[in-house]
Amino acid sequence: MEQQGGIDRVSIRQRPGSLPVMYQSWRKLLFMHWKLPPELLRPHIPNRLQIDTFDGQAWIGVTPFIVRNLRPVFLPPFPWLSDFNEVNVRTYVHYDGIPGVWFFSLDADSLLAVAGASTAYRLPYRHARIRFREEKDQIFYSSRRIAYPVPPADLELSWRKGEMLGEVEPDSLEFYLVERYCLYAVDGSEVYRARIHHPPWKLQRAELVSLRSTMLERQGLPQPAGEPLLHYSEIQDTAIWPLQKVS
């Protein structure tokens, strides 16, 4: 079982010295997490990557949000590409002590975004039909994967925004779950990493109102027990660097 020892969660927060390749803003983002024993997750993670744990437990997340103003560096946003909705299924890994995100799936309602990100970042993006609406302090979100021949996957949920938590401490569970500054991809025996930079998350509590999901089942992932742990953020501006081979 992988442990936390030797993982530097703070240095990775420093902005890389080179220019990013794109900027984007994440809006109305819900972190929905369940913990589970890492040995149940191990068969679903490439062997080159180590599972990142907190107090001996792995965590798996479903994260719906809105992308706004995606644009390459030095160019304005494009109306047909820059705004779309997305939902991720993810967990947390590390390689050479550098923690990051491993994506099981990424569903988006923009075919251009799906094609571009799949090619540039070697990520399992899928086309989906996604709906979002907000009524006072409650948010409604639904997604249905429509990418053939990939099996369909559905998500329907609503939640209420709660009190502000603000920035979180580096030794906290919240920091482990949300303060992630790179993503990983694996192609054969090769490991790739892409850096991400943004200000510290400003989190709010959230209360789950309803949830129906087949996002984990369709990936063949183990089903966690109990209610998910929720955190919400209104907005996060991000810079993203290109994918680079690290092994």
In short:
By secondary structure, the chain is mainly beta. The chain has helices at residues 38-41, 111-121, 173-178; strands at residues 22-36, 50-51, 58-72, 84-95, 98-108, 125-135, 138-145, 154-166, 182-187, 190-197, 203-213, 229-240, 244-245. Strands 1, 2, 3, 4, 5, 6, 7, 8, 9, 10, 11, 12 and 13 form a 13-stranded mixed sheet that branches.
Walk me through the structure:
By secondary structure, the chain is mostly beta strands. It has one domain: Beta Barrel (Acetoacetate decarboxylase-like). Helices cover 9% and strands 51% of the residues. Strands 1, 2, 3, 4, 5, 6, 7, 8, 9, 10, 11, 12 and 13 form a 13-stranded mixed β-sheet that branches. The radius of gyration is 17 Å and the shape is globular. 32% of the residues are buried. The mean pLDDT is 93.
CATH classification class: Mainly Beta
Mean pLDDT: 93
Oligomer: single chain
Q: What is the CATH architecture assignment? A: Beta Barrel
* Helix amount: under 10%
Strand content: over 45%
* Total of domains: 1
Quickly count the helices.
3
**What is the general shape?**
globular
Features:
247 residues; mainly beta; Acetoacetate decarboxylase-like; 3 helices
Topology diagram in text:
Blueprint: E1 22-36, H1 38-41, E2 50-51, E3 58-72, E4 84-95, E5 98-108, H2 111-121, E6 125-135, E7 138-145, E8 154-166, H3 173-178, E9 182-187, E10 190-197, E11 203-213, E12 229-240, E13 244-245
